[in-house]
Every structure is written in structure tokens, then in C-alpha cells.
């Protein structure tokens, strides 16, 4: 839904229309939810070449990455939801308590209502429609606000979402700050934002006015620790795929910096240089397999990181750039100062600093001293090191001996912790994040307990205390008048 005048009044009217659809119960049926999921798959199939072209216009994204990481992953998400949806929608039977005996209990997943999804520019199709998968699977109405920084993809979504999905329940709003501000002024039942921490704080501040719950999928500086005992060739190929093979580093879970030992770093650097040349050629600026930088602002931001006086001399590979084409070559830097700009903010581009330590274990303290990252990676064959990494490093997600691959495992939640975000999705977690888990207790009119009603007495108090604690022996002792301490050590129902 694009409009020349999209202000608070127009937004309010749109939200009222969507709530009317929701309140009519249209989105609650299994059939409606299935139809929307199938509609997304059909849109990906019918419009695949148009989507690939939009991603090329916005980011210079290679067809391979567009087909696999945007279209393919989105279709996989829909297929998973279609396969599991009936099971997800079923009430979950749970045990009741002795205090409510006789009774039965269950947890019912119900849709939240009207949700707002604000998307990011780096994966503008996947990060727009993957949250929609969860929202419609859970039975909500939704507004999608694509990123204006990827205008071709935003325009494509505005054009085709109404054609393939139910426009009485799902709308697309294009635009920039004024449109986003108008949307955030409304009361929503959930806001799902993907992007950076600065805007995440604005979203959260706006949500506070209405006590709206939020999901913030942010980022951070995701570290990669490389041990000397690894299969170096395989490890380096995976590092490259998880850095430059993800939108040329413009991905929130890409490798942000490497830590390895002083003894091992020469071998690691040599292998990285060799594989980068093998993958992207002698002149990577001409490679068709690397995305360009999204716009001139981000190009200037990245070159500023490289041009800092204490950093520019640390470039040991790459560094070439072409502002006219918005291209920056894969660049490796060695032993940059910890207080440099490139180590102070998320890079979100093709630059990769390498830090060195005497002992690899020292890297754990360095990571823990910084904000919690969205992802953390370790390459090693040492079980003790793996166990300590998983136990002591707090991150949104962890992958051992690979980068970013945990993202495609639907049984794992995807989300951040601390400043890298809050809330998670993917697979059933997408359904759950857009659902309210409603507690339901069923009782009959038999076996009513007089002890819960006035007038109160010490005997009633003793019995109810035993029931609330859930001690069978204490209940029996209270009923037959045994001493109060009898059965007090039994805490199980």
C-alpha cells in the first residue's frame, strides 16, 4: 500500500481496517493461514527472475546468493510451516496440580492481533517475508514496512504482496522516516524490527507508549576464533563463505573479526589470500560473485574505517575500492588497535581485521569484555575448548567449525541477546513469537474443597498449605489429624 500522503490519519484508518478483518475471525482458520503460506511460495516461483533483478539493482547481489539465501530460504520456511502448522495450532496438554484436583489443563496458542514488521535492506526479500511467514502462520493481520534503502525490492513487495496475499489482512507500506514514524505512532500487538541498534532504540521507545512488545533483530561484532589444529583449507573456505559470501560482509551474522595465535596467523593469512584469489580473482572489483556496497553513505562509512591513521597501515590484503561502482574488495587487516573505529562498531562490509594473542584462551576474555554479539564462531578440534566456548561465551547463537550455518537449521531459534537483540524466530519459534500462549484450566463441579472457603480455621489453613506445596503426605496428615511436621519433607505431588 503506497500513498502520496501516508500520515497518522491514513495509518489509523489502515490499522482500523486490518483490525476489522482480525476481529471478524478471518485469519484464525487453518485454511486461511495455509493459503497465505502457499501464496508466498507462488510469488517466489512466479516472480523469481524479477526478484533476482531487484536484488541486483539494490545490491549487485549475485544470482546464486539471491536464489539460495533469499528465495530458497524463504520457500523452505514456508514449506516447514505448511508441514507443521496443524501441530503448532493444536492446544498443548499439560499436567494440572493437586490443588486444582480434579482438573485438566492446556496451553492454547492464539494470534496476537495486528503486528508491524519493519524490515532491513541487506536481505530485503527474506527479512521482509520470513517474519510474515510467522505472523500469518500464527493467524495475525500484518503491516510490512520494507527498507527504503533497497528501493527496487521495496517496490516489488508493494506491487506483488497484494496480488499473492490477502490484502484485507496484509499490507505493505513504502517510504522512509515519515512513514515509519506514522506507523510507530499506532498501537500494535507486536512490533518486529530488523536493523541496527540506533533505530532499534527508537522503535522500542515508540512501543513503550502503548506497552507494545517488541522483537529486535539487531547485530554486533561477531567474533571468529581459529585454533591451529583445524583443517585449514576447509576452515578458510567456510570463513570466506561466511564473510564475503554473505552479501560481501553486509550481513548481521557475518564474521566481524578473527582472533588467532601469533604463531598460527602467518599460515591463516596465507591461506585466506590464496582462497580469496581463487574465489574472486586477481581483481575482485571485477568479480560477478561479490555484492556491491548498498549506497554511497555506506561506502563512505567503510572507507572511513580503512582511512583511519592507525588502521590504514594494517591492511595486508585487498583494500581496493571504486566509488563509482560502490565496490570494495575483500580486505584483511592484521593487528589493528583495539580502540580503532573498525574495532568499535559493527563493520557490515567486506573488511576483516585479525587480532592475535599468545594463547587462544585469552580471546574468551576479550569477547566477554565487549557487547554480546549476534553470533560467535570457533574453529577447533579440541573438545575442552569447544565446551568452554559454549559455556562461557554469551551470544545470540554459536556455530562450531562453520559460520552462519546455524541460521538455516529450523529447529534452532534465531535472535540476539543484550545489545544484539531480543526475541527469536525461525521454524516454530516464528509461530510462537507471534502467538500468545493462553493458559486454560478445565474443572467440573465435583469434589469441591470446603477448605478454600470462609470461615477460615487452622485446619483449613494447614490443608491448603499442603495442597499449594503439593505434598501428598502433608495433605493426608492434615486430613487425618497427624502432627503438622509429618510429611513436611515430602515436596512431590
From TrEMBL:
Gene3D superfamilies: Aldehyde Dehydrogenase, Chain A, domain 1 (3.40.605.10), Aldehyde Dehydrogenase, Chain A, domain 2 (3.40.309.10). Keywords: NAD, Oxidoreductase. GO terms for biological process: aldehyde metabolic process; response to abscisic acid. The keyword NADP does not apply. It comes from the Eukaryota. The active site is at residues 217, 252. Residues 15-440 form the Aldehyde dehydrogenase domain. One of its GO terms (cellular component) is cytoplasm. GO terms for molecular function: aldehyde dehydrogenase (NAD+) activity. Pfam families: Aldedh. Belongs to the aldehyde dehydrogenase family. This is Aldehyde dehydrogenase. It comes from Nepenthes gracilis.
Amino acid at each position: 500500500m503506497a500513498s502520496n500522503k501516508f500520515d497518522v490519519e491514513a495509518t489509523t484508518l489502515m490499522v482500523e481496517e486490518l483490525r476489522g478483518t482480525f476481529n471478524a475471525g478471518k485469519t484464525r482458520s487453518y485454511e486461511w493461514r495455509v493459503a497465505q503460506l502457499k501464496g508466498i511460495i507462488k510469488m517466489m516461483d512466479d516472480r523469481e527472475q524479477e526478484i533476482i533483478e531487484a536484488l541486483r539493482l539494490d545490491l549487485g547481489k549475485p544470482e546464486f546468493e539471491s536464489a539460495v539465501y533469499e528465495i530458497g530460504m524463504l520457500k523452505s520456511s514456508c514449506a516447514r510451516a505448511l508441514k507443521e502448522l496443524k501441530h503448532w495450532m493444536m492446544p498443548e496438554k499439560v499436567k494440572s496440580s493437586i490443588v486444582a484436583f480434579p482438573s485438566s489443563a492446556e496451553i492454547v496458542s492464539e494470534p496476537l492481533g495486528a503486528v508491524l514488521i519493519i524490515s532491513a535492506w541487506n536481505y530485503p526479500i527474506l527479512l521482509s517475508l520470513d517474519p510474515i511467514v510467522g505472523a500469518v502462520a500464527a493467524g495475525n493481520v500484518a503491516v510490512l514496512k520494507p527498507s527504503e534503502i533497497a528501493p527496487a525490492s521495496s517496490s516489488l513487495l508493494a506491487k506483488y504482496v497484494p496480488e499473492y496475499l490477502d490484502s484485507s489482512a496484509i499490507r505493505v507500506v513504502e517510504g522512509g522516516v515519515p512513514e515509519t514514524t506514522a506507523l510507530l505512532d499506532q498501537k500494535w500487538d507486536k512490533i518486529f524490527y530488523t536493523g541496527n541498534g540506533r533505530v532499534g532504540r527508537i522503535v522500542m521507545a515508540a512501543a513503550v507508549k502503548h506497552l507494545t512488545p517488541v522483537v529486535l533483530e539487531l547485530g554486533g561484532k561477531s567474533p571468529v576464533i581459529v585454533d591451529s589444529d583445524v583443517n585449514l583449507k576447509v576452515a578458510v573456505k567456510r570463513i570466506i563463505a561466511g564473510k564475503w559470501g554473505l552479501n560481501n560482509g553486509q550481513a548481521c551474522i557475518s564474521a566481524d573479526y578473527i582472533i588467532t595465535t601469533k604463531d598460527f596467523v602467518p599460515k591463516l593469512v596465507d591461506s585466506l589470500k590464496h582462497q580469496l584469489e581463487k574465489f574472486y580473482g586477481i581483481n575482485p572489483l571485477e568479480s560477478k560473485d561479490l555484492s556491491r556496497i548498498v549506497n554511497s553513505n555506506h561506502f563512505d562509512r567503510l572507507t572511513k574505517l580503512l582511512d583511519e591513521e592507525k588502521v590504514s597501515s594494517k591492511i595486508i590484503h585487498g583494500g581496493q575500492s571504486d566509488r563509482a561502482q560502490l565496490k570494495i574488495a575483500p580486505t584483511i587487516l592484521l593487528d589493528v588497535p583495539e580502540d580503532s573505529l573498525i574495532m568499535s562498531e559493527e563493520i557490515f562490509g567486506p573488511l576483516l581485521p585479525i587480532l592475535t594473542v599468545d594463547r587462544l584462551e585469552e580471546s574468551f576474555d576479550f569477547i566477554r569484555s565487549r557487547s554480546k554479539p549476534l553470533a560467535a564462531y570457533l574453529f577447533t578440534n579440541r573438545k575442552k575448548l569447544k565446551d568452554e566456548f559454549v559455556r562461557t561465551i554469551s551470544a545470540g547463537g554459536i556455530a562450531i567449525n562453520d559460520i552462519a550455518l546455524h541460521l538455516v537449521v529450523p529447529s534452532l531459534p534465531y535472535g540476539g541477546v543484550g545489545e544484539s537483540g531480543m526475541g527469536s524466530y525461525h521454524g516454530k519459534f516464528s509461530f510462537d513469537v507471534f502467538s500468545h500462549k493462553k493458559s486454560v484450566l478445565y474443572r467440573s463441579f465435583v469434589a469441591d474443597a470446603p477448605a478454600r472457603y470462609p470461615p477460615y480455621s487452622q485446619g483449613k489453613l494447614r490443608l491448603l498449605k499442603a495442597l499449594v506445596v503439593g505434598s501428598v503426605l502433608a495433605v493426608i496428615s492434615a486430613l487425618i489429624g497427624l502432627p503438622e511436621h509429618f510429611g513436611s519433607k515430602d515436596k512431590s505431588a
